[in-house]
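Entry for zinc ion complex. Fields follow.
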Amino acid sequence: MEPSLNFTFCDACHEQFTAQKIPLTLVNCGHTFCKACINQNIETVHSSKVCPECNEATPLDQIRPNKKVLKYLQTREVNKTLADQQTLLDQSCRTTKEQTLTSEMLFGSLGMKQ
Ligand SMILES: [Zn+2]
Ligand SMILES: [Zn+2]
């Protein structure tokens, strides 16, 4: 895994964030974990979640979706779709080129016969 993409992984369960596994940030310390870890794996003390990384407590109402990571995930989805479309375009271009080549060859062979 590329180190620069570490922010798309949950520090608690080490799984990648997705649209379903949304990244939530503990506002007080800024660490980000997936929703499942916030709900199940991270200890709740006095209506606050205690960060397993730095032990800073963040009240439940101060836990926010990490928009930066969410946006990155969305952008990556779009790019992936664009890349797929580009691949299709490349393939159709190649087919056109092959057809052109074939007709050139055909005309060429016809020219030789004449
Ligand atoms: Zn997690
Ligand atoms: Zn923390």
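NOTE: The longest strand covers residues 23-26.
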